[in-house]
Amino acid sequence: MTQSIIRVNKLAEVNDRQPTFVAIGSFDGVHRGHQLLLQSMVSAARKQGARTAVLTFFPHPKRVLQNLTGPYYLSTLEDRVALLAEQGIDLVITHPFDEEVRHTRAADFVEQLLRYLNMRQLWGGDFAFGYKREGTVPFLRRLGQEKGFTVELVKGMVKLGDGLVSSSRVRAGLASGDVIDVADCLGRPYHLSGVVVRGDHRGHTIGFPTANLAAWDELLLPANGVYATYAWLGQKRCLAATNVGVRPTINGGNVTVEAHLLDFDDDIYGQELRLEFIKHIRPEMKFANLKALQAQIQADVTQVQLLLA
After folding, report:
1. Which helix (H) or strand (E) holds 240?
2. 3-state DSSP: the chain helix, strand, coil percent, rounded to 5?
């Protein structure tokens, strides 16, 4: 069961100063590498009766520093907080990464951590923060000797197959449609959540009605194609054949996410739907006519049933 968690939007909003072990980072997606770090910190903190805190930046620093646009994130901020809670974190600070933070000197940022949190340990991998990344591990350790905190590194990166688990690997997996590798890196299936909105009802006309998902437009989508997915409506789970793409046979256009829920015909417009991507079935294709499209969708449905039933 996920524990209760305290969330604030800035360091200065923390009003309960107590001995705290802190991890700083984006933690986008909270993949298995993040989990190793956080679980190590939580274990150490519990032995010493300390609070655990994560300071995570939003927007992602790379969005600001590199002027990145378009979909980028592996999780919504709300999902990130929930995933951090699952790791046993007591306090999450979703600190804004803006021009002020970008130009904050490392020593000044450490002073804030000490003032508002009573930081006793600072946890991370081989990291650096502060203006021009001047807050390197050697710098922070020297500062810690003066200020009374230690820097704890978790060196054991999580290896999976021939490579290491990383956010970059997850993004590459989504770009190629390899949702199996993505799930291995995350320790759970990649998912999209959003409200079911009305489409053009083309699915109804060909016998395969779909739920059109309005997901956050900054969240990364898997590569265009058809996927075997689980669809969750609250606590109810259904099998679904989900298409990500532009529907080239019908009319093309913007990328949409449409799920055909198997053995399901309820009206769910306006409801929250969660899609878990289990396996890529095929790339998106343009068919000669609707009859060929219908035959392929039926084959997709049969494959989903075999994979997930």
Report:
1. strand 236-245
2. 35, 30, 35
Asked if omega into 71 is within 30° of 0 (cis), the reply is no
Q: What is the DSSP letter of 207?
A: T
Q: Which residues of 184-198 are buried (b: 16+ CB within 10 A; e: fewer)?
A: bbbebbbbbbbebee
The C-alpha atoms of residue 93 and residue 237 are separated, in whole angstroms, by: 32
- Asked whether 30 and 66 are in contact (CB, 8 A), the reply is no
Domains delineated in the chain:
6-157 (3.40.50.620), 181-308 (2.40.30.30)
Residue 213: CB partners within 8 Å, gap ≥ 6? 192, 194, 195, 196, 197, 257, 258, 259, 273, 275
SS3 220: coil
Report pLDDT digits (tens) over 222-241: 999 999 999 999 999 999 99
CA distance 271 to 265: 14
Q: Which pair of tokens denotes residue 293?
A: 């499209």
Q: Which amino acid is at 221?
A: L
pLDDT digits (tens, 9 = 90+) for 184-225: 999 999 999 999 998 765 655 566 889 999 999 999 999 999
Nearest one of 141, 124, 171 to 23, comparing CA atoms: 124
Taking the alpha carbons at both ends of the chain, their separation in whole angstroms is 26
Quote the CA–CA distance of 293 and 75 in Å, as a whole number: 32
